[in-house]
Amino acid sequence: MLVQRQMSVIEEDLEEFQLALKHYVESASSQSGCLRISIQKLSNESRYMIYEFWENSSVWNSHLQTNYSKTFQRSNVDFLETPELTSTMLVPASWWILNNN
């Protein structure tokens, strides 16, 4: 499962957001079922794209209930200009296996 998250960060809160994002990525990456997390900062903007690959939707839903995920979500209320945009897409397991060998 691919999860795409788009976040527009308030310029003054950029440093705090980056620290919160770092903690989130470190915690999420160590979780069973998290295959990969990739972050892209759009140039000349304080907008971030986060791509998370999870084994399946039930693992993703469990991840959303963890303390580190809830902490990151709560901090985003203060750091973001607009609400986070999240979209998901199911990806065949064969795609992941073929592209990581």
UniProtKB/TrEMBL annotation:
PROSITE patterns: ABM. GO terms for cellular component: cytoplasm. Residues 1-89 form the ABM domain. Gene3D superfamilies: 3.30.70.100. It comes from the Eukaryota. GO terms for biological process: regulation of amyloid precursor protein biosynthetic process. Signal peptide: none annotated. InterPro entries: ABM_dom, Dimeric_a/b-barrel, NECAB1/2/3. This is ABM domain-containing protein. It comes from Pan paniscus.
